[in-house]
Amino acid sequence: MIGILCSNNKEKFYSWRLHSIFSELMKRDNDRLFVVFSILNIDLLKGKVKGFLVSKTGVMPIEADIPPIIYNFSFQKSSEDIRNLRRLSEIDNIVLVNGTNRFDQNMIMEMLCSSNILKKYVLNFSIYDKNKNNFMPREDTDYVVIPSKGSNIDKIYYISQEQKNTKIEGNEYIKRGESLDYINEFLCQRYLLFIEASNILKHNNCPIIIRTYIQRGYNGTFESLGRRINADIKIDEVVTENTDIASLNISNYIAKFIPSIGTFFIDLILDKNNAPYLLHFGGFDLWLLNNLKEKEYKKDFYKNLIYLSEFYERSQKGE
Question: Does the model's pTM come out above 0.85?
Answer without folding.
Answer: yes
